[in-house]
From TrEMBL, chain A:
PANTHER family: XANTHINE DEHYDROGENASE SUBUNIT C-RELATED (PTHR42659:SF2). GO terms for molecular function: FAD binding; oxidoreductase activity. Pfam families: CO_deh_flav_C, FAD_binding_5. It comes from Pseudonocardia thermophila. Keywords: FAD, Flavoprotein, Oxidoreductase. InterPro entries: CO_DH_flav_C (IPR005107), CO_DH_flav_C_dom_sf (IPR036683), Diverse_Substr_Oxidored (IPR051312), FAD-bd_PCMH (IPR016166), FAD-bd_PCMH-like_sf (IPR036318), FAD-bd_PCMH_sub1 (IPR016167), FAD-bd_PCMH_sub2 (IPR016169), Mopterin_DH_FAD-bd (IPR002346). The keyword Oxidoreductase applies. It comes from the Bacteria. Residues 1-178 form the FAD-binding PCMH-type domain. Transmembrane segments: none annotated. This is Carbon monoxide dehydrogenase, medium subunit.
TrEMBL record, chain B:
PANTHER family: ALDEHYDE OXIDASE 1-RELATED, XANTHINE DEHYDROGENASE. Keywords: Molybdenum, Oxidoreductase. This is CO or xanthine dehydrogenase, Mo-binding subunit. It comes from Pseudonocardia thermophila. InterPro entries: Ald_Oxase/Xan_DH_a/b (IPR000674), Ald_Oxase/Xan_DH_a/b_sf (IPR036856), Ald_Oxase/xanthine_DH-like (IPR016208), AldOxase/xan_DH_MoCoBD1 (IPR008274), AldOxase/xan_DH_MoCoBD2 (IPR046867), AldOxase/xan_DH_Mopterin-bd_sf (IPR037165). Residues 35-147 form the Aldehyde oxidase/xanthine dehydrogenase a/b hammerhead domain. SUPFAM superfamilies: CO dehydrogenase molybdoprotein N-domain-like (SSF54665), Molybdenum cofactor-binding domain (SSF56003). The keyword Membrane does not apply.
Amino acid sequence: MKPAAFDYAAPTRLADAIDLLVAHADAEPRVLAGGQSLVPLMNFRLAQPGFLVDLQHVDGLSDIRLTDDELVIGAMVRQSTAEESADAAAGAPLLVEALGHVAHPPIRNSGTIGGSIAHADPSAELPAVALALDATMTAAGPGGERRIPAAEFFRGPFETALGPDEILTEVRLPRRPGGHAFVEHARTHGGFAVVAVAVDLAVDDAGTVTRAAIALSGVGPTPIRATATEQALVGTVPDAESIRSAVAATVAVLSPAGDVHGSSETKVDMARSYLRRGIELALDRAASRR
Amino acid sequence: MTTVDRPTPPVRTHKAERTWVGKSIRRVEDPRFLRGRGGYIADLVLPGMLHAAVLRSPHPHARIVSIDTSRAEAAPGVHAVVTGAQAAELTDPLPDFGPNPAAHTWRCLAVDKVRYVGEGVAVVVADDRYLAEDALELIDVEYEPLPPVVDPLAALADDAPLVHEPLGSNCAYDRTFEFGDVAGDFERADVVVTDQLRWHRSGGQPLETVGAVAEHDPATGGFRVHTNSLSFTSYLFMVATALKIPANRLDIVPMPAGGSFGSKLFVTKPLVIAAMCARLTGRPVRYLEDRVDNMANCDHHGSDRHYDVRMALTRDGKITAIDIDTVDDYGAYIQFGVGHHGNALAQVVGPYTIGSVRYRVRAVLTNKNQQGAYRGFGSEVNNWMLEQMVDKAARELGMDPVEIRRRNFIRSFPHFIPTGNVYDSGDYDAVLDKTLELGRYEHWREVQEQARAEGRYIGIGLITAQERSVFSATEFWFWFDEPGAPVTSMPESVTLKVDATGAITATLYSCAFWGNSPETMVAQLVAEEFDCDPHDVSVVYQSSKNGLPATGPGGSRTTVMLAGAVEGASAKIKEKARRAAAHLLEADPDDLEWRDGGFEVRGVPEKRKTLSEIAIMLHLFKHSFDEDVESGLEESKVFDHPYTTMPSADRKDLGVFYPFMGHACHLPVVEVDVETGVVTFLDYAAVHDCGTLVNPRSLAGHIQGGTAQGIGTALYEEFVYGPDGQLQTTSYLDYPIPTSLEVPELKIGHVETPSPWTPHGIKGGGEGGRMMAPAAINAAVNDALAPLGVRITELPLTPDRIRAALRAAGHGS
Ligand SMILES: Cc1cc2nc3c(=O)[nH]c(=O)nc-3n(C[C@H](O)[C@H](O)[C@H](O)COP(=O)(O)OP(=O)(O)OC[C@H]3O[C@@H](n4cnc5c(N)ncnc54)[C@H](O)[C@@H]3O)c2cc1C
């Protein structure tokens, strides 16, 4: 469990980091963020990049900014920093709640927000949050900067819209008042989700759902939106029965792959249960915040 | 049951007033380990040391057609590459206690054929482990895949592919033992309860994996090997044989185990690989398994059993007989034979007065890593099976789980169970009473009822089970008609040295710190003898070369055996000190009594000599004494197994082989989320009785830790081999182990029923928690699901298995 040989650079400027990726393109370079996913993969020799560009010292990637309508988190913000940030709590409480489910504190001390999203593990929590919140990812490459909406960002397991010479610089999360919930099943605390559900919704004074965004992790190659459930909820005052049928609309079309942690049927059972719980919790919170 | 002569050892009288034995002193090992000064294999760096890495088979079953190592040999930093075929010339097969070692030969690397995913095929020795792993990628092996043997039941079919051709079958052992009138008891039974049960394999997960650092001395042809397995003092010859050297050329230095839980017991493979490579390269070599090596290839996977069981009862709930048929999937080799079933037979009837037993065991070989030892050594599986059966019987008879157990408790001791093993002492009612109180049984029954009314599923598990201790090796050979060995002694030794200042050093043999607390135990036992502070006792470990006979930790024997050795060595020291004191005090030795750290003339407290006053005289002024007194104050005791007897020739009585019988009651309370199958703990009480306690807190640590592992076995851990023979759980991503967040804080209670036959009445307790928790948690989950008509008989109880069972019972969502 030792990595194959690689070269390494630790630039301080984003432009230099991009230049390095371009210059070493033949070596199948990778950027190194917190190393909590990449280094294990290298130790197992499942990843054998010939060149690592360490982003640790790159200026301007570690800020958290809260404006009236969005929370902007630098890609290199450590997961534990975001978890403890008052701005993050105010701007995206769903993200903060989800972070509590990502690994263990020592891993969150190194692991980054950008690293988790760029890594795009189909069982990871943050991609589901990004999808539910309609986040926008800012990517910088040799051709300049571009913004990629979450719906287009996650392409497959460990596969994103980022090009090989692009660096994720920040994640922009729109501020959306309402109620949120992040619920999941992991085999043990801190483990990857078997099934996770991120819910973000709003209700009016009458209790009518005015907006619903729900995403799941662990049930497909990428996080997915529970669009049918969202549509069934919006415009209604949900009760137990209508929540159940709204959930059923999504669950009916799920066909997750089974693995050592659960068969496809069990994952569907879990999705059903956690969708319901997530929606109920988010509705409660939305109501109590009005 | 055939009648055999049943001698019992003389009953001891135990000291009533104890100063140190029984106190929860701080563990003397802690300062070293808590400060990161343990000194593990990974910390040991010798000048010029090279590093070995092993190429592992990606196939479960394949013929090795060819191996080309030329590219690897030419790689940077590489000193040697050894294939299995070459290793077979450099070394002999590894020590193997299996039924027919010549027909299932086990070597440090595979030759001709690989038999499981992860089996070693070649080893590279390089300047560092990175370069060694680089070179592994350059070894070209051509395999001819063979159909894998994965399902042990299918492996028994006549046309199944063979794991070992010379054996002619995949069944390495098949025998039925009968103890008592089984057929008659079943005929007379009012009720017969039957079931099928399935226990999947898991294993101990040590923080440091198994490793060795070997040095070869070309001048003598000998080796000095540091390893975190045993020092093999009594078994050195077996390891030396594998290295093809005389045993007196081998010195094994024990290193702290970094956790074993059984999994480092008698591990020779890394040691032999490191030594072979050291001899070949002329440099010290470290071979330390990494986590993937360990999970796939540690040779210490736990039991993997299918059970078909019948239990005979009277209508009022008295269990009269049990008929057990088990198929155990041993994997590709069978190093310890079916000793795991000997462990089961030591306490096969649990704490109950069951009169007859039939036990059929079939040991099946498959394309998996082999079984070794894991806390309980197979007896924990029997506990689980038996308690499941008792609970099922209670259900069928409409009895409460407490009531059926009380109806069947053994209450007079010593008690010989049908297999011939003896239970020395016990008070099962006292343990049960204490558990019911500590675990608030009645309270939880009320809560359970309310919860059920609200559609919540709370379950209370209650099991009472045995915790055998201090094994005798007859359990490794009573399987055969011709054992070819008399009863074995399984010794353990201690040397005590009182230096010129009166300070005491205890030397231990056979292993270093093993995760248990041998140093604390010895320090307390020595302090008890000599009235000193246990923290002032120095405890050191000796390597095998100057070692005294010693067997090592296993079968919960360490504390009892060390207590016997300390007692014996102390008696010798006191005898010499008494003579010296008598001489110095000009008194008759018989008039002296030991009091408060010295000898004094009985009734004349001012006429006394402390141990340090005596010691300095004996060390430096020997000529003050009689001619036959030698300088110094140092004595050793080789303590042999205090009570073990021969099996009968017809094997209808296996004799005494595990006589010091602990007992425990566990009472977990769980809630099952029926939508997701997730189990959470609401409470957990555990009361253990392993005789006189040396250190209640360190025993509580064992109970807590063993229960944590039992929770792993019950809910989380499983080595999963797919139908294609691939190991699907090769890291902790796929093999979840419970963390402190999954393990509840236990309410622990102790009952102390001293053994009549051991020093101070101590019994072993090192495996306790794991012997009870799987049974208890399974019982709790089944209790929770009872209203839904669901009962699960397969461990671990993953959310997936629970959901599958609920779906099968019509509880879709
Ligand atoms: C024991 C353990 C448990 C874990 N449990 C969980 C869990 O429950 N849930 C979970 O979601 N994660 C879990 N993780 C993973 C953890 O959250 C990682 O921190 C995260 O997945 C990756 O973040 P990182 O900063 O460590 O990235 P790295 O490991 O450094 O990089 C990961 C990948 O992303 C790429 N990358 C990183 N940053 C950028 C960037 N700015 N632009 C472009 N590409 C980039 C890298 O090149 C690499 O391919 C666990 C990890 C461990 C070790």
